[in-house]
Each structure stands twice: as structure tokens, then as C-alpha cells.
Design brief:
By secondary structure, the protein is mainly α. The protein has three helices and no strands. Helices cover 78% and strands 0% of the residues. Helix 2 (14-36) runs antiparallel to helix 3.
Length: 73
């Protein structure tokens, strides 16, 4: 899966953002499992990319939920 940029994430519907988040978390779990077995990761920089993308998605989801909360008050 390609790295998602903030503007790409913000242009997606919330359901698709959550689906991508699930996919990235599964991919990260797979990479961590590979490393825990003692074999080197296929792409060492990929774990860092995945973690950053997950953090980016969670940040944008939090911003979306805060915007919804502010409009409902």
C-alpha cells in the first residue's frame, strides 16, 4: 500500500479512511511478526512509513471528530 499524504486522506470519506487504517494496522502486525521470528524485514524503512501513516490517519480522524463536535454544540 502506498503512503497516504494528509491532503489525500482529507479528501477521502471517513469510512474509507477507517478501512485504510485497518489495512495498515494489519500490514504493521505482519511486519512485526516477521521481525519477531528473527528474520530481517523485507523493507526496513516500511515499518517506519506504516507507523507514520497510521499516526497521520489517527490525527486527521481526531480533527474530523472535533469538527463534528464543534458543529453540534
Amino acid at each position: 500500500m502506498a503512503i497516504l499524504r494528509p491532503d489525500e486522506i482529507r479528501n477521502m470519506p471517513e469510512s474509507e479512511i477507517r478501512q485504510r487504517l485497518d489495512q495498515l494496522e494489519e500490514e504493521l502486525a505482519g511486519e512485526r511478526a516477521t521481525m519477531s521470528l528473527g528474520s530481517p524485514p523485507r523493507n526496513p524503512g516500511r515499518v517506519r512509513e506504516i507507523r507514520r501513516t497510521i499516526a497521520r490517519i489517527l490525527t486527521i480522524l481526531r480533527e474530523i471528530s472535533e469538527e463534528k463536535g464543534a458543529t453540534n454544540e
